[in-house]
Amino acid sequence: MTVTLAKSQAKSQATRTTAANGDARIKSLITLIDTLTALVAEENAELAKGLPASRLKQVDEKNQLAEMFERTVAECAAGTTSLNVHDRILREQLMERILKLRMAMDENLVRLRAAIEASNRRIEAVMQAIREQIAAVSPYGASGRLAARAVSSGTSRSA
């Protein structure tokens, strides 16, 4: 009976240790998600001001955090990592954070697309101005032949 009790206590202790490790992993994941969400929100605010996507300072850090998050999700999907959350409140916090991240990322996608479109419009406007300048000074026409230049001829009236 003492052996059975000892085994039961050891099993109970192992379960608590596993749960504590799982909870610590979940808390770490929540911290990662919170950091990523804050970074994306900051980037969205800058994009809303009209800053080009290429000038954003958050890009590298956002990519690094997103890779860490994606790796965790991939490990869970592959079954190499388990995120069993025994604490209902902790599980709800995790789900809430994931939803907030998803909303921020959805907004980020829309804003980045708009920034890319704006950059493309700026590039096209510059290219059009360059084409017009070249056409104005080029001795060649659209066919590649020398363009006929209007020659000014004046009349001289001498008395």
What can you tell me about this protein's structure?
It is built from three helices and no strands. The protein has 159 residues and is mostly helical.
Summarize, please.
Helices cover 74% and strands 0% of the residues. The protein is mainly α and 159 residues long.
Give the distance, in angstroms, between the N- and C-terminal Cα atoms. Answer: 139 Å
Helix content: over 70%
Secondary-structure element pattern, one letter each: HHH
Silhouette: rod-shaped
Overall mean pLDDT? 80
- What is Rg? 32 Å
**What's the tally of helices?**
3
Keywords, separated by commas or semicolons:
mainly alpha, 159 residues, 3 helices
Fold blueprint:
Elements: H1 2-48, H2 59-78, H3 88-137
Helix pairs in contact: 1-2, 1-3
